[in-house]
């Protein structure tokens, strides 16, 4: 899409550059957070695995990630490291250092060598004193890719399941068509007289399929093995609509150097191929795969099948399409884009306008923009060479003209437009009609591509969108990656530049679905939350598009809206999105900006929603005083009287939540103002009695009223019912009736399981605390481990859940007397809190570290930790003596009394050295 600026004098390229920088900054922040949590998870696993060698390996991996933690290039390495962490935890469970013989010992030794080599190479680069922010340029992607492959190879050693498959490198293929190393070409070892051979199909668009096939044909070992029995049959330049079986056979016979006569041409060609081993390439197979003009075409697939089944014949097809003869056990291979080094080599082999050493930086940016697409690289290199463009001039031409620069002549080797038009005119694409082009333009407009699982929800106005995506994928116009269908950059640029813009109805549908998901989604991890997590870049793109360029189109979604109101709607959605992704600072900024716009637009009710969201963000991070101030200021504002009774009641409810945590109001008065409101009444009554519990009220009265309120909740009121049950579980826990508390928590799990996964997670963690209090530490550890998988917790949305899980794990280990583990968990929680700005769990964890220090008789360190805890209590607004009053399951066992001794001034002095 083109970028429009509200300031005519501003260069649109500058605007676009700014947008790209902001997007890059957002992606970089996500990378930092993901890598930091990966490091945290690895450090935790390191403390748990029983094998010293495995501990050392994990420590080295964490060191690698610590060095490179702000670079997106290393995310793939991070994911491999996560996989290793899981594998080591699984493989070493129950093992000992004395038993490291056989497969496990060998695998650990190989892994140790690899990770140490990687660490050595990474560390050596850092020692060159390059700035850390420029570190990614000192290790190229090929080296990183090599590390990935090395780690992949070793991960296989830890697999407990048999992995079958075949991936034969070109050199292995050339040296006898045997072996099974990881590489780029998939074919089967030639075994004479063992039918059938396993033919291969190379897929891709502009990826150099034909060149790859020719390279295979001309490898010296291939020429030695097959001699003059190497055949390259091209079907390029033929019109699929006029293709016939006779044309197919004639081309094949000509390439084989034979003459076929009569009607039984297939028998004659088959006899020729059976006479000796042969390697046959059918190039541009999409020509006959897409053909539809002749009734004899149905003979082609059986003919290919017959050739493929001839003993001693290796058959390779190259095709843009994914159709193939159905009765052949094909080995298929998508020819991937080039790696960086290969792409540069291709470019500079053609372009001589500057030396590679002097122009690599500028050309690298261009190659990345092309996503290392071979045809596009070749076309641009020829254009730069023919026009004597400098690398800087070429980059400028590309930024100005994009896909137009990829049309340098006629024919598919000189023009991306030519090959695209061939594809778009193919019968299968033509059969899709207008809807095929509508889908294509939409996919090109979305930065993540189209979510395949949600395609029909996102594009209800495009009939049979799933089938359309299948056809586009078959034609290699798009490709599947994860749950998305995507488009290579050169193809995307062509679609954006040469086809009509995305259909407004389609954009309206996508916008309505995404905005609706953001608005309706609660903090519980339901299906809508999953949509927001998976598609968050697309959602951000839609919001930014609406804010900067698409306001006129938003009118179709938001009726009777001013420009201010429209922008505010966009910012509100962005704030909600950031909240789901645990980007709390960004969320509050978006809500604050939306709040100002809503005031300007005179929409006081929606403005109040922004204020409530900001206040609740403060509360969720433990900033209770700030949360109160925000809501109290709203109550004192001119807007207050313009709000409905329901909205006022909701604001009073959220204000009292913060007052409850900060003990700035008596429990008798908490939640009273919202009790009589139909929407907030039941929840307020439950919260009132829970506040009584937290503030030291009569437990018997609390229990009676909560049981009465439980009977008042309707069958479908999950929120009210589970809220009352949680209060009763806390009552039982406070009174020491641990088994009863556990039973109530199990009831909550049964109630919300499959509906609110976040709540299930929290309740299972609380159950672990109860199990720990009962002395069953193994069960407690198991419950925490099962509450959320170690890698799932690294996703952005689950970052807060990660804090909860790790803190409670430290809580359990402290109770079990495992002080080293507890210390690691608490320290990890503090690191996570610093990343997220969560001071509440940081306060809990600092207190935990103080108890650990005291248990080790390090009084000075204990006092230091307790003093830091006290300081944070002042920041949160929570009285130090009430640190856990509203978080009963977060409290440490009463036998750890260092904190109370510190507050009472009874912690003895000591001359211990602070560690």
Keywords:
915 residues; Rossmann fold; 3-stranded antiparallel β-sheet; 8 strands; elongated
Topology:
Blueprint: H1 12-48, H2 52-67, H3 75-91, H4 102-126, H5 141-158, H6 170-174, E1 200-203, H7 209-217, H8 220-226, E2 230-234, H9 245-256, H10 265-274, E3 278-283, H11 286-289, H12 300-308, E4 313-319, E5 331-334, H13 340-350, H14 356-369, H15 374-387, H16 391-401, H17 416-424, H18 427-432, H19 434-445, E6 450-451, H20 455-458, H21 465-474, E7 479-481, E8 484-486, H22 489-498, H23 504-520, H24 527-534, H25 536-548, H26 551-554, H27 563-580, H28 584-601, H29 604-620, H30 624-636, H31 645-662, H32 681-694, H33 699-712, H34 718-734, H35 738-752, H36 757-773, H37 777-787, H38 799-815, H39 819-836, H40 839-855, H41 859-876, H42 898-903
Parallel strand pairs: 1-4, 1-5, 2-3, 3-4
Antiparallel strand pairs: 6-8, 7-8
Helix pairs in contact: 1-2, 1-3, 1-39, 2-3, 2-4, 3-5, 4-5, 13-14, 13-15, 14-16, 19-21, 19-22, 23-24, 25-27, 27-28, 28-29, 29-30, 29-31, 30-31, 32-33, 32-34, 33-34, 34-35, 35-36, 36-37, 36-38, 37-38, 38-39, 38-40, 39-40, 40-41
